[in-house]
Amino acid sequence: MENLVIKGIITATSKKIDDKFKQEVPTKTAYIKTDIENAKKLQDFGLRKYTSKQGEDYFIIKLPANLMVYTPDGFGKKRPDLSQVFYDGVETNNFKTEKMLPLNIIKGNHMNNDFFRLQAIRVDDESDIIEIEPENPFGDEPAF
Q1: Contact 16, 49 (CB under 8 A)
Q2: Burial class, 144, CB count within 10 angstroms (exposed 0-12 / middle 13-18 / buried 19+)
Q3: Residue 116 is part of which domain span?
Q4: In the chain, which end has fewer C-beta atoms inside a 10 angstrom radius, N or C?
């Protein structure tokens, strides 16, 4: 396996699963925006660059079953609640980040096919990861 660390922003994750690719544990896909220098590193590593209708470049990378989140003290913890579509029988929320963070991407090969995973995120603190909660389309306020 090869390893690459870049800086990027996770603009969103998606729970959409492609039936062509079987996964034992369905995981999310991350959409990553970065600067020119890090985009070149990603392309040289083998990832494809996409361009939105608005002209912004981004990369698409699958998450592993157990995304690792590291803090400045060097400690990491597994966050399957961030990477898996369902965790403990409950559908999980998507998430994003709003600032450039170190991202660890691995490249592996299975049956002569390269694959990439966003293996780990380095945050200053857990608040750098923003869960996207479903919104009520009717505008009703919950009664507490």
Answers
A1: no
A2: exposed
A3: 2-16+27-131
A4: C
Residue 21 lies in a domain: no
Residue 114 in domain: yes
Tokens coding 136: 């009520």
- What residue type is 42 in one-letter code? L
pTM (2 decimals)? 0.89
- Decide if 95 contacts 81 (C-beta within 8 A): no
Q: Domain count for the chain, please give it.
A: 1
pLDDT band at 141 (very low <50, low <70, confident <90, very high): confident
pLDDT of 23 > 80? The answer is no
- The verdict on residue 104 lying in a domain is yes
For 114, other C-beta atoms within 10 Å of its C-beta total: 12
With respect to residue 139, please indicate whether it lies within any of the assigned structural domains: no
CA dihedral 14→15→17→21, nearest 10 degrees, is 80
Amino acid at 60: I
Nearest-angstrom CA–CA distance, 144 and 68: 34
